[in-house]
UniProtKB/TrEMBL annotation:
E.C. no: 2.1.1.187
Annotated GO MF terms: 23S rRNA (guanine(745)-N(1))-methyltransferase activity; metal ion binding
Protein name stated in the entry: 23S rRNA (Guanine(745)-N(1))-methyltransferase
Domain 23S rRNA (guanine(745)-N(1))-methyltransferase N-terminal: 3-46
NCBIfam families for this protein: PRK11088.1
Record-listed S-adenosyl-L-methionine binding positions: 67, 93-94, 182
Amino acid sequence: MSYLCPLCHAPLAPQERSFVCPQGHQFDKAKEGYVNLLPVQHKRSKDPGDSSEMMVARRAFLDAGHYQPLRDAICQILEQAAPSSLLDIGCGEGYYTAGFAQIIAQQEGTTWGLDVAKVAIRYAAKRYSQVQFCVASSHRLPFNDQSLDAVVRIFAPCKAQELARVVKPGGIVITATPGPRHLMQLKGLIYDNVVLHSAESESLAGFIAEQTQQISWPMTLRGNEAVALLQMTPFAWRARPEVWQALTAETAFHCETDFIVRVWRRETSA
Ligand SMILES: C[S@@+](CC[C@H](N)C(=O)[O-])C[C@H]1O[C@@H](n2cnc3c(N)ncnc32)[C@H](O)[C@@H]1O
Ligand SMILES: [Zn+2]
């Protein structure tokens, strides 16, 4: 399986240091091994996606193992489904993707990681050579119709239509989204009234919901870990200086996690 050209959607042929389509559009491989398939004209900002600060904070936090139960739960689903091709959408710095790749390797399959943030993909590719990483937008995935056995989407945007296009009939999408109480103690430091995430059941056009599990566990964080957690979330920019100071001084900040993990099966009939 190969990438598609983001300009003309023809297959990209791998060369030694680049990928080239029949029309001659060329995309060079970076020295870290990833390829940037996000043409300037498709960018909505100069540096789309999560910032470098968010990415560095997320790497420190995930490396400490605080979200390992989430990774383990998705790995367990993958062990059972045994896909031989997997795409992690919005893979960030690659912590989850690398875990999934170990399972896909058992089938001698391929794991792909995609994110719109170049800085995150650079970090990911540098550390995890077993994954094929690309910079691209989830609004137009650089993959052929019905080419993937499985897609994982952890807290990342992607339209149902695009997922339905790339997943094979009978293939799966695994989504992880925040449950009602996710990080509510952290939010309590920032908002006067903490609104619980909605627990409404979702739907994904073209897919049948097959499994839903809620995973939650308590975390006790040291000041620097709590600061990293805040930095990697979208509510960081709302936090007043007092909040950052208070978190930095924490020795045991208690915070709940709450994730909803769903497995969606691609319908087989057209
Ligand atoms: C909340 S982060 C989750 C990262 C990773 N899955 C994790 O949980 O650690 C969302 C990720 O989606 C990426 N992202 C945002 N918009 C995107 C888009 N349109 N296409 C691809 N990735 C996108 C961000 O750069 C970021 O890395
Ligand atoms: Zn092309």
